[in-house]
Sequence to fold (249 residues):
Amino acid sequence: MRLLVPLVLLAAAAAGGCAFPGHVAEATLERSVPAAGIAVLDCRTHNGDIVLRARPGADTLQVHAALSVRGHTPEAAAANLSHLRVEPRLEGDRLVLAGEYDSEVRSLSPSFAFTIEGPPELVMELESHNGSVRALAVAAPVTCETHNGDIVVEGAPRQLRVKTHNGRIELEIGGVAVDGTIESHNGNVVVVVGREVGAAVEASTHNGSIRLGRESAGFESSHHRLSCRLGDGAGRLAIETHNGNVEIR
Fold:
């Protein structure tokens, strides 16, 4: 029995040292970057949403970053914010926007959510591991990827690549012709294509249904696969979900 006392004390001390950091501190940062000379916006975050709103005529990129981190006390969480930073950097004609943090807070759920306004002509490359991605009113090639979250794209991108591992994809595409790939591992895909858009469409699902709700040519369909031509078929859209439904309208 005497041997149990130190063992119990050690176990209690270990449990106390591993207590969940239940307090969260938040902060916001604002950045403004001249758009002159920038061709590509590369925004990445491990934890957090990304919202991009293209604004015609904009000559700057306006960045709003919402930061958060945990701590074992409110004071510790607030102090941990000093280990988080957002500093846009230029790499040639590419603007890289990403949250950075020190190793001291790696296990304290550092999060960076971005809301960005900028010219619609910029090539957009947006990636979040845990968070949704929205690209609105875009007019240039767009890449959106998230491991866990939904993706929404609206506008007239000439090219697009959209991928989520777990989430829903919603696209509303205008313009003339578009080339792209759209993929969800687990989630439904809804694609609304403007009447003026031309594209050859290939859609497939491993577990789900495919529905075409608009006029097309060259229609071929099976239970898990569909192909058709929209408009003049000038572009190409490949749509795939492993577990979910596909709707094209």
